[in-house]
# Entry
Amino acid sequence: MAGRLAIGLAVGLGIWLAGPGAARADGAAPPGAQADDPTRQILVLLRLAPEHYRPGADYGGTYGEGPARAADRRAADHLARRHGLTLASDWPLPLVGVDCFVMTVPAGQSPDTVAAALSRDRGVAWSEPMRLYHGRSAATPNDPLFPAQPAAREWRLTDLHQIATGRTVRVAVIDSLVERTHPDLSGQVEIAEDFVGDRPPGAESHGTGVAGIIAARADNGLGIAGVAPGARLLTLRACWQTPARRGAPPSSVCDSLSLAKALHFAVAHNAQVINLSLSGPADPLLGKLIDVALARGATVVGAFDGDLPGGGFPASHAGVVAVADESLRPRPAGVFVAPGHDVPTTQP
# Structure
C-alpha cells in the first residue's frame, strides 16, 4: 500500500510540468506546413490476421512476413489507390488487434472527411485523422536546494521516503527525450526508446523535467529528490521539442501515432504506471490502448485541462487518474491537484 501511495504521488507530481502548459491537441497545421505534414495524414486500422503476431521477448513480439502480413499490405495499397492517397508507413499494434497504416491525404481534401469515408469500408476496422499534441515546458531552472521543492514542504517528502520510495515500480514517462546522463537521473532509467525517429536527437526539457520530478536520485548531495527515487523509469520519446519563439519557452509536439507506439511499448513491457502529461480531444486508438493498460492493472495518469470539456483526453477517459493544477477553480470532483508553477526539477 505504501509503495502504491508513493508512486501515485510521484506521477501526480509529474503533472506539475503540464499545468497551464499541458500539451493540447491542435487540428490546424502549423505555419509553413508541407504537404507531407502529419496534419495531412490519417491512420487506417486494419484487423490483424491470426498468424500475424507471435509472442516474443522484444517489442511486444515479432511480426512475420507470411501470407497474412502480405495480405494486409495489399489491402492497404488497394485502399490508398482507390482513395487517391499515398501510403507512408505502417506499424503493427497487436495488443489492440490492428495493423496501423499511415496515409497522406492530398491537398484540397479534408483528412477528417477521408478518414470517415474509409471507416465505412468493410475491410477497415476504423480510420482517424492524425492528431498533433502541442505543449510548452512549464519547468523552472534547476534549483539545487531540496527545501525549495513544493513536495518537500507540503507532503513531508523526507518522512514519506522513510516509508516508501517506489522501489522497483516501473514508471513509463511518455514525453519528449529524457537526458539519461543527467546527474540526478543517472542509473534511474531502465529502458529508453525513441518512437519519433526522424527528429534530431538530444535531451529535451519537458521529458527530462517530468522524469526528475518522479524519480530524481535522493541523497546524492545535488539537485533535487524525486518523489519516488526508487522507481525504475521507462523513458519513451513520443514528442519532440521545437525551438523557442519570441521569448516563449520551447514547446513539445507529439502525434497520435508516436503516442500509440509508446503506449503499446509501455503496456507490452509491463509498466505499472504510465504518465501522459498532455490533453486534447478523445482519440479512438489511444483510448483502446489505455483500456488495455488498465485491464492489465496499470495506473494511467493524465493532465486535466480546465479549458476542455471533461478536462480533455486522456484525463476524461474512464479509469484514468486525472490531475489538475492546484490553482484551478472550481476544483472538479474526483480530480487530484498538484502544484503547477515554480517547480524546480532536472533540466538538460
User: Anything to note?
Assistant: The chain is about 25% helix and 25% strand. The longest helix spans residues 67-82. The mean pLDDT is 75. The chain has two domains: 2-27+133-338, 38-130.
